[in-house]
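hey m, so remember when u said the tokens were messed up on ur end? i reran from scratch. heres the input so u can diff it against urs
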Amino acid sequence: MNNPIKCLSKKDWFLLIVSLAIVIISNVAFGSIDLLSLAATIVGVTALVFAAKGNVLAQILMIIFSILYGIISWRFQYWGEMITYLGMTLPMAVWSTITWIKNPSEKGKGEVAIQKLKPKHITIILFLCVAVTIIFYFILKAFHTPNIIFSTISVSTSFLAASLTMMRSSYYALGYAANDIVLIVLWSLAALKDATYIPIIVNFAIFFFNDIYGFISWKKRESKQ
């Protein structure tokens, strides 16, 4: 694997630095810095920047983020988030790491080759997404998960995003952007009970803009590949 640092452009560095600055400031502004949440966000934001470049380091960082976010979700009893990231996103990130390594772009430069989805791919992904959603709804219901509707939708969007990432589709970023919106709503509900979760809302807002940037970057690279 090529040095991932060398693949970042000035625009990437600007986005990364600004994103991290906003995250840190938001945590400090609310007077209660949660080191675990801050660490998870720093890892997550960095992962998204490398994901936008199609660099496999993004998936390695996503494995670390999944573990940290799973712990954060456990603390608030968001069982859906915990189960999703530890039981689904994490293993799929491992799988994506292997897939990305095995499928470099023809031009190299540490970039993964982008794959255009065929109708059969879309059919399989949608079928599995519906099945996962139904199964997880009853699992979350059994655990008396708070805000179960949004938690279930989060599972759906997470699975969709992780599947598209594994398939090396440029639309993976839109899947994660949709998941970001759901998580903003989910943690806003949590913040109504505990204001210390407000920085997490800011964190996912930053994730959203980074995912949109990732989608634009992948579409540009897709046309070149």
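this time it looks ok to me. The chain is about 75% helix and 0% strand. if urs says something different then somethings off w ur setup not the seq
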